[in-house]
Design goal:
Elements: E1 3-7, H1 12-25, E2 30-34, E3 47-50, H2 56-65, E4 68-73, H3 79-84, H4 86-105, E5 111-117, H5 141-160, E6 164-169, E7 171-173, H6 186-195, E8 200-202, E9 210-214, H7 215-227, E10 239-240, E11 244-246, H8 248-256, E12 264-266, H9 270-276, H10 285-291, H11 299-311
Parallel strand pairs: 1-2, 1-4, 2-3, 4-5, 5-6, 6-10, 7-9, 8-12
Antiparallel strand pairs: 9-11
Helix pairs in contact: 2-4, 4-5, 6-8
Bound molecules: serine.
The site of serine has 11 residues, from loops.
């Protein structure tokens, strides 16, 4: 069995995936690449190759030099930042994916994971329990790039037999790493501020409900999907995935169970428009049926889990 390559290893998801792959396969079976080293101390246990994921030649050299079988391509510019830089977002969200799919088509890589997002949905999709096959008319370049990427994944699977797997993640909430440039980031910010005894000015409306998920659930779901037998998978674009869903005011209440003085104020900005175009909750019955998905954290247990994590020594 070859090694696992995490592209975008220094990012919010990359750090968490690295820790899980370390405990599963051993740090020597994991190779990390990004444009900067991972900020987590355990990053030093694995081989690190500094490279721009948009550089196809560098990626190919890495895969060949390090006997890579599985690639997790996590590189992305998230929704809010993408709106400020549409062409840069398009390039960063597409080029590395296409390079990795090409390596798989050439037979250099056996399996690929690539994250999609709830951002593929737009205002015309049903808001509650949004189905797998709801209309896909997003209002952000991030959403447009995720749909294009999903279709490329399906195309490479159908046309070339590439084993590529994908999940439409909700907003991801962890304590080890922070997102940047997303619309769901307020939830991570709220928990970090509360743990430090501060409040938060939230850039969304108090009642803007969004699908969210603990990082623990997200990584478990990712590895479960990667472990599933290929023939069990009926979705080769990207699976809807639900964790829990809440509004800022509900998150404030859940945080107050631990930090009674915590308070949010609300000053909605351009990100409110993005959030309003996204689902409230997601129907993930295809993931449940095909590979047994079940989220563990609701909002109360997610908040508790994050506070416990933030209290641990780094
Ligand atoms: N968390 C992402 C964002 O807010 C959505 O996938 O952009």
């Amino acid at each position: 069995m070859g090694k696992h390559l995490i592209v975008g290893a220094a990012g919010q998801l990359g750090i968490e995936l690295m820790l899980s792959l370390h405990s599963r396969f051993g740090a020597d079976q994991v190779v990390l690449t990004d444009i900067r080293p991972t900020p987590h101390p355990d990053g030093a246990k694995s081989m690190y190759v500094e490279a721009d994921a948009c550089d196809a030649v560098a990626l190919k050299a890495m895969v060949e030099a390090h006997d890579i079988d599985v690639v997790y391509n996590l590189v992305a510019m998230l929704s809010a930042r993408g709106e400020a830089n549409p062409m840069a977002a398009w390039k960063l969200n597409m080029d590395p994916l296409l390079h990795v799919l090409e390596l798989a088509r050439e037979g250099l890589v056996k399996k690929v994971f690539w994250p999609s997002s709830i951002a593929v949905f737009g205002p015309d999709a049903p808001k509650d329990h949004t189905p797998q096959d709801a209309p896909l008319h997003p209002t952000t370049v991030y959403g447009v790039s995720k749909i294009a990427g999903e279709l490329w994944c399906d195309y490479y699977h159908t046309k070339y037999g590439v084993d590529v797997r994908s999940l439409r993640y909700p907003g991801l909430i962890g304590y080890r790493s922070q997102p940047g440039g997303g619309t769901t980031d307020y939830a991570v910010d709220a928990l970090i501020q509360a743990a430090q005894g501060r409040g938060l000015e939230c850039y969304l409306d108090a009642n803007e409900r969004l699908p969210m998920m603990s990082m623990e659930d997200a990584i478990r779901g990712t590895l479960q999907l990667m472990d599933a037998p290929s023939e069990a998978l009926t979705v080769r674009t990207s699976y809807n995935l639900h964790g829990c869903d809440f509004s800022p005011i509900e998150l404030e209440a859940a945080i107050r169970a631990h930090v009674p003085d915590f308070a949010m104020t609300f000053a909605p900005d351009h990100r409110q428009g993005i959030a309003a175009s996204w689902p409230n909750s997601i129907d993930d019955s295809a993931a449940q049926q095909d590979w047994g998905w079940k989220a563990e954290h609701d909002v109360a247990s997610l908040v508790e889990h994050i506070f416990q994590g933030l209290e641990q020594p780094a």
